């Protein structure tokens, strides 16, 4: 059995770029072999949780789209930034001005949004207009203690029609304008991975994170004590720098790396014998 | 220690130095005439993202200043010069009123991005267009990186935040061409056959005018008009070569001591 797969009891899976490429009306395009790979993991007895920074829709909505693409996934199996942000807002008595995608707003239904004392920014896509950004900026600059909460900090993501600016770029814009530092809820924040692991019931040293983003997925997971696999699908193709060495990639053969997530699972005999 | 080289060029800031809004600084027109009688090259320099040279010239001529268009150098000119040097075709995210300063530059099939203050262009679709060009290797040129500015109904985002966002997304640094960047001052002297050590800058903004010029190797004269506030001269190191009342006094000093 490959050393890197020893004592693995659970997998955290990124969604966009691993299971599917987002974009278009139907939720995007599934990545070949991924749906089957998910079924095989579930059949193997390994624990599984989807750990995503998706903020363009509620969990109900994007899970439904993925089910439509043939994936065996349910809302209960998903760790996403909006619900994590809601917990934080309630804990700290924060009332947000939201700069998010229209389809995410329902996640904040039972949050008090009157007289905002912070700004929450998500992957707002077309809602990143000058007017909307200016409004968020004015809320922040008018606060004695400006609090900016960013759902993830990705630089860009891949849709079927090309690369698009992610929440991180606009988080930076507001940070620069107001001379503040955002708090990140979502990958690669440690707390986010820790809550996913807690929800799965597996400690970090017995879990593997699989993703396409070297910073948000791989880097963030490693900093929690997990092992991480970077797949060469999704936005990987567009990255020009070499990924930092991961414990896993060092042990994997070239063939496995190229085949991505389904490829990893098709050589998964070591994994299935590792689980108890 | 080597003797100071003789003065050959004078750079003059516009707003706050030659005029304050629609009024000329008292005595400034005559002072300029006296300066012109000396063997000096003169350039009028300013940061702007939406006033083309013709508009500036019109305003100054109306105030009684004797100025030629080719003597005006703005942050827009600096951007244009950079585009010509690099031989690139820009995606111009600038105010419509600034476009005349880019006449003659090809903009089809862009391979460069220029950002000024242009809220009408800062929507998601256009930002993505700029982002993809930069990822493909297009240089990102910022007219300046102001964070925000004051409007009648409150504060509004400047170009700086959008430049910062694109820098983060692409992991590329923008080239900022306006004051107080060193290149702005060096570019202003291009074509004058004067070295920075042979030039002096007169302005009311201690950091952007004087500090920037001195950092480029020139001498800087701070005038106490426009946005000047008491003790501004203590905000830069080294301090201004000279701090004086206004443009006419600066000219007197130059004619008496620097020629």
UniProtKB/TrEMBL annotation, chain A:
Report the subcellular localization.
Answer: Cytoplasm; Nucleus
SUPFAM superfamilies from the UniProt entry: HAD-like (SSF56784)
Where mainly found?
cytoplasm
Name the GO cellular-component terms.
cytosol; nucleus
Reactions accelerated catalytically: diphosphate + H2O = 2 phosphate + H(+)
Stretch forming the signal peptide:
none
* Classification via Pfam families: Hydrolase_6, Hydrolase_like
Identify which cofactors the protein needs according to its UniProt entry: Mg(2+)
User: What keyword terms does UniProt attach to this protein?
Assistant: Cytoplasm, Hydrolase, Magnesium, Metal-binding, Nucleus
InterPro entries assigned to the protein according to its UniProt record, in alphabetical order: HAD-like_sf, HAD-SF_hydro_IIA, HAD_sf, LHPP/HDHD2
Q: Which GO MF terms does the UniProt record name? A: inorganic diphosphate phosphatase activity; metal ion binding; phosphatase activity
What is its EC class?
hydrolase
EC numbers on record: 3.6.1.1
**Protein family:** Belongs to the HAD-like hydrolase superfamily.
The task this protein performs is described as:
Phosphatase that hydrolyzes imidodiphosphate, 3-phosphohistidine and 6-phospholysine. Has broad substrate specificity and can also hydrolyze inorganic diphosphate, but with lower efficiency.
* Name of the protein this chain belongs to: Phospholysine phosphohistidine inorganic pyrophosphate phosphatase
Species source reads Chrysolophus pictus
UniProtKB/TrEMBL annotation, chain B:
Cofactor dependency: Mg(2+)
One Pfam entry for this protein is: Hydrolase_6
Q: Where is the STAS domain?
A: 1-83
Kindly state which keywords UniProt assigns to this record, in alphabetical order: Magnesium, Metal-binding
Q: Which PROSITE patterns match?
A: STAS
In terms of InterPro entries, this protein maps to:
HAD-like_sf, HAD-SF_hydro_IIA, HAD_sf, LHPP/HDHD2, STAS_dom
List GO molecular-function terms, semicolon-separated: metal ion binding; phosphatase activity
GO annotations of cellular component type:
cytoplasm
Q: Which domain of life is it from?
A: Eukaryota
- NCBIfam families given in the database record: HAD-SF-IIA, HAD-SF-IIA-hyp3
**Family recorded in the similarity comment:** Belongs to the HAD-like hydrolase superfamily.
Task: Please identify the protein, giving its name as recorded.
Answer: Haloacid dehalogenase-like hydrolase domain-containing protein 2
Native source organism of the sequence: Phasianus colchicus (Common pheasant)
């Amino acid at each position: 059995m490959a050393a890197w797969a020893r004592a693995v009891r659970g997998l955290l899976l990124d969604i966009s770029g691993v299971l599917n490429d987002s974009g278009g009306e139907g939720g995007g395009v599934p990545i070949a072999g991924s749906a089957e790979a998910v079924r095989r993991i579930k059949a193997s007895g390994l624990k599984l949780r989807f750990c995503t920074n998706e903020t363009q829709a509620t969990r109900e909505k994007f899970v439904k789209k993925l089910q439509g693409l043939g994936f065996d996934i349910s809302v209960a199996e998903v760790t996403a930034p909006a619900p994590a942000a809601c917990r934080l807002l309630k804990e700290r008595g924060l009332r947000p001005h939201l700069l998010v995608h229209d389809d995410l707003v329902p996640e904040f239904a039972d949050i008090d949004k009157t007289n905002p004392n912070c700004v929450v920014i998500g992957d707002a896509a077309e809602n990143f207009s000058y007017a909307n950004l200016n409004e968020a900026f004015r809320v922040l600059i008018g606060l004695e203690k400006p609090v900016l909460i960013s759902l993830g900090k990705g630089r860009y993501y891949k849709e079927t029609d090309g690369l698009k600016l992610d929440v991180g770029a606009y988080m930076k814009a507001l940070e620069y304008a107001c001379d503040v530092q955002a708090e990140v809820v979502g990958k690669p924040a440690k707390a986010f991975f820790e809550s996913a692991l807690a929800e799965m019931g597996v400690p970090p040293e017995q879990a593997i994170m699989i993703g396409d983003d070297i910073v948000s997925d791989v880097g963030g997971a490693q900093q929690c004590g997990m092992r991480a696999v970077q797949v060469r699908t999704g936005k990987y193709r567009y990255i020009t720098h070499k990924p930092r060495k991961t414990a896993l990639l060092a042990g994997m053969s070239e063939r496995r790396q190229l085949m991505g997530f389904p490829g990893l699972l098709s050589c998964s005999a070591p994994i299935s014998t590792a689980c108890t | 220690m080597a003797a100071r080289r003789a003065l050959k060029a004078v750079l003059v800031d516009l707003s706050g130095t030659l005029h304050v809004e629609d009024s000329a600084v008292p005595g400034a027109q005559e002072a300029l005439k006296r300066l012109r009688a000396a063997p000096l090259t003169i350039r009028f320099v300013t940061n702007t993202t939406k006033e083309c040279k013709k508009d500036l010239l019109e305003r100054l001529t109306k105030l009684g200043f004797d100025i030629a268009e080719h003597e005006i150098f703005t942050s827009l000119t600096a951007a244009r010069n950079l585009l010509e040097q690099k031989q690139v075709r820009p995606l111009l995210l600038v105010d419509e009123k600034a476009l005349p300063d880019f006449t003659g530059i090809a903009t089809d099939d862009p391979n460069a991005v220029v950002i000024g203050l242009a809220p009408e262009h800062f929507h998601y679709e256009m930002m993505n267009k700029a982002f993809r060009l930069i990822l493909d290797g297009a240089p990102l040129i910022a007219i300046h990186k102001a964070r925000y500015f004051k409007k009648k109904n409150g504060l509004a985002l400047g170009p700086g935040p959008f430049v910062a966002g694109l820098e983060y997304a692409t992991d590329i640094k923008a080239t900022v061409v306006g004051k107080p960047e060193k290149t702005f001052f060096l570019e202003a002297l291009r074509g004058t056959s004067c070295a920075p050590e042979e030039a002096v800058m007169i302005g009311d903004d201690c950091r952007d005018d004087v500090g920037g010029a001195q950092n480029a190797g020139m001498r800087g004269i701070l005038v106490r008009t426009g946005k000047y506030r008491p003790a501004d001269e203590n905000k830069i190191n080294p301090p201004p070569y000279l701090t004086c009342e206004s443009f006419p006094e600066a000219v007197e000093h130059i004619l008496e001591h620097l020629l």
